[in-house]
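Newbie here. two chains, one complex. Structure please?
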Amino acid sequence: MEKRFYSDLRLGILGGGQLGRMLIQAAIDLNVSISILDPAADAPCRPYAHHFTQGNLKDYDTVMAFGETCDVITIEIEHVNTEALEALQAMGKHVYPDPKTVRMIQDKRLQKQFYRDHDLPIADFVLTDSKKDLDPYRHWLPAVHKLGKEGYDGRGVQMLRSEADLEKGFDAPSLLEKLVAFEKEIAFLVSRNPLGEMAVFPPVEMVFHPEHNLVEYLFAPAVLAEQVVKAGETIVKQLAEQLDYVGILAVEMFLLKDNSLLINEIAPRPHNSGHHTIRACRTSQYEQHLRAILGLPLGDVTQHTPAAMVNLLGEAGFSGPVEYEGLNEVLAMPGVYPHFYGKTETRPFRKMGHVTILGNDPESLKQTVTAVKNTLRVISRS
Amino acid sequence: MEKRFYSDLRLGILGGGQLGRMLIQAAIDLNVSISILDPAADAPCRPYAHHFTQGNLKDYDTVMAFGETCDVITIEIEHVNTEALEALQAMGKHVYPDPKTVRMIQDKRLQKQFYRDHDLPIADFVLTDSKKDLDPYRHWLPAVHKLGKEGYDGRGVQMLRSEADLEKGFDAPSLLEKLVAFEKEIAFLVSRNPLGEMAVFPPVEMVFHPEHNLVEYLFAPAVLAEQVVKAGETIVKQLAEQLDYVGILAVEMFLLKDNSLLINEIAPRPHNSGHHTIRACRTSQYEQHLRAILGLPLGDVTQHTPAAMVNLLGEAGFSGPVEYEGLNEVLAMPGVYPHFYGKTETRPFRKMGHVTILGNDPESLKQTVTAVKNTLRVISRS
């Protein structure tokens, strides 16, 4: 007899961080039994998982042993052993997204090549295998050198501003990408189920700090011309189809002065740029991912309330048991909703949670974002 | 050092059913550690509780032993041992709502007397201790005879239509209530925190089946004249203050032809009439209850989307491992969101889950309710 998600089907998630934790919150509504594999004994998912296995996500045998106990397998982090996922798929397990896609996304070179092969819009690039391969492209500077594999959260990315910087390039398989003068950085979340049904959430806009060149907050829906939204939807749907994708896919894009779009990066899982969907959209990105990978009809992606999202990062200079300064004050602000990830120890810039802000328009959201950022601090007193 | 909810504070809930389960979903955002006491080994909360104790909610020693391990204690069902709660309160535990209020609500006679003493609007009633006390009130018929204690979900309530029915009255402490010809049955959810701050959700309307005299579905916001909403808000705020209430309080009311309101019943906990708040309001009744009992500022109760709620009851004639017929079809309807309670066995009329329907107006909601009710069935094939 076929297993049903609301009774005996077991969903395995590789990774037990905050994205997995929010997936579990959505899974409770559908009564999906969740198994988690994560290397950390105190992973944010652990208190809420039906089954928790501590283990290395990159180890073939560990992933195989875990996956064999599950019916459907997905990921909340892309740095996992894809050979094991392929073997599990060959055994008849439902593995979403497809391990081939995860492997391709793990390697920025394969990723870029895929876009080029499929005529998807990207910044111009060349592959390099060593620093000396950069020589013929001195006229591209300033440009970005990106390590093919293992780059993550800023690591493995080197800005080459002038010829003096060429020495900082990577002596390993990498790609050199032309720097793009963009107007805005935006993100689209597209979901696709095994029947090929697709739905695209309203786009999200990243707002950068004027001095630090860091994302300060995100808001949605992004303020964009109607034809830009349509063009973005077309690109992400095309991409999802070309990948034969199942699940939720986050696509970060650059909007250029001429209103054209370039794909920057993609993530084959729920994404930071979709946290606000929990509170601001009829269906959250987490529920949508579950619907897609369980082969269910997709949910309505209507955004009912304009929203902003601020990551709650550990302040520089503090490490140890976490404390939140100003929490009561921000909870008293109308439409402000903190989401904590259950991490007991803070470290500089560690993602400890996020705050969703519901408002009426981009301007009032911006004001509340500023108030939240000026009030709430993630510190440690020990 | 004071315990903080996001780190080491432990919240104990008496009862581990669906209301506790949805409280846990909200508690994950605030990173509140939850302990559950419930008599059932397979209680809906169990997979998601940090600590689960199987035990009798009415047993003094069991509730004491459980409560001693907690910092804040609340209930998701009112049939609990209030002496133990009072002893825990005397030990310095935060017990919300107050055990005195819970005891008063457990006894419909004390409840009615409280309303009368505080000039709150109710249907006329008299207390009875035996059937023969009904004699002088023959001229009140048709009327309702209600057992003071232990009534629940229709048990302990007897309609007395004619003198021949007097024999069916209760030979125990009860109350006889005049039957009220009401236009609508509505509910208000009010929350109050220890500082006395209050917030009232937009009211909910119960729609009865034209033939069966059972609630068919609920929708919110109720279609009411502005002054009726204001009057209802005033009554529930007055009630919450008079009870020195902390937490969320559900107040069911009758709307009469002359637009006046009478209090029917109250529940000192999250309530069936507030399930829709999870999807339709900025703050859910569950998060609001947590904010109140944790001494935090209350959340914004704005309802962003009109919603209906249908209880998912086990069909008559089916008992055993649950199956949901028509589930894929209802998931394909825009704005339809099932919430399952994790109960593996269905029984006739058992609450197995609910479906929230998000729409644009009462008429389109009604159409989708009808479609959902005609499509989704809770059965068993074994």
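Moderator note: Residues 347 and 364 of chain B are 31 Å apart (CA to CA). The mean pLDDT of chain B is 95. Thread marked as resolved.
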